[in-house]
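Kindly review these tokens for lecture notes.

. . .
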Amino acid sequence: MKTTNTQITVKNFALLCFSAAFSTWQMGVIYFSGTALSLWGRTPIAVDQSIMTIIIAAGYLLSIVTICLVPRFMVIVQRLVFFIALLAMVGIIISSNSVISLGFFYITAFCCVFAIGGMASIAAHLFTIETTWRDAILGMVFSGVAIALLQNDFVQFNFSIFMGCSIILVVGLLIFHLKLPAKINVPYASKLSGHRKPLIPYIGIFLMVLFPTMLLLMATSVAETVPHGVSTMFLSAAVLAVVLQVTKVKLKILSGKDYSGFLMLTPIGFVCAIMADYVPTFGLVACVFFGFSVVLSNLYLFFLATGFSLYPSRFIGAQGTALGLGLALLHSMVLEVFRNSIPLLYGIYLFISVILIIVFHFLEPHFMYIWRQEREVGGEKSELNPNADTQEQQKPEMEPMFYKVLSQQEGNLARLILEGYSEGQIAKEMNISLNTQKSYRKNLYSKLDIHSKRELFKLVQEED
């Protein structure tokens, strides 16, 4: 099955009204409700933590169910969610009854949590991979600075200022979603279509959602124990996002190498956290390195969009949201078990971060190939336009030059290997036995004078 290129490219200012506004608003809700980051609540409203926990769980679960049931109408759903949130925030401001204000705050929190899955689904289905990259960078710079200010230990922002800013942010979110197409008209892959998802990178996509989430959760649990740690971590993330974008522009690629570098630098933060027991200054240094994990976590929409380009499933957004929720619950249990053994906990964090680096090392060539293909596909819409033409406008896929020395079957085999299909999937796609596939692979490697898949990926990268 060949999908129609219906994704849209969104202008930078509009992206600021998307995840940047949402991230800042979300962190504000957390900041003032005290449900995370050990801030214990700074709202004058008497928030019940047990009720907030139920609201967060309900928001996530209902979001996942909604995405599965009506993925094509998530834009309309999100419009309704943000409109309700806006009314609730106005209600908090104008209400003089504390019980009513509390009810409105719970509604706001529910809408905030529910919108997480909806935004993931919309971005994966509608946005180009390049757009989700820019969204991550712009969102990190804007929200990183804003959250650093919100979480700082020097100037305390009162609840009224937060509510006023939140109304502006949610209005921006509402306007953005009103300009999106009301219905998501993208073709979904299905079993009947005969479209098989390339197993290796598809699984890797969700690992890339889980890894940064895990790193961020671990980093945050450390940063909140350091004076000025949380604000330092997010401010560092804003600066690092600029660095990542500059290197991407300089190299003119969607750079997996840069991502790999950020991933490898994150464990240094956990090393510094362990050393902080002996030299307290290393605590803040650790938080600077934790900024790498914040940037990586902010790229989750980028990886979901990449996953949708590989296999356009209606469940991409729901799967990503469910995995993130599951990992958060798992981390909370780990944190509870080792809360009284902090050095051991940090050692576990360090071990996990190193394992993540090793796994990404094996996945990186597949991602680099996917992003190379993305650059060679034309027909992207140039702006956020609900009336834009949705007809297929793809250029023929550019094949590497070395394909000329291969037979048709060997060329097909090379393409499927690069796209990440397993040996079993390749046999089904090419309608050949595993033994025949091994024979083609041997001839392929011999003609190209290579000995492994990684060398095959290297040949492709050398043509960039």
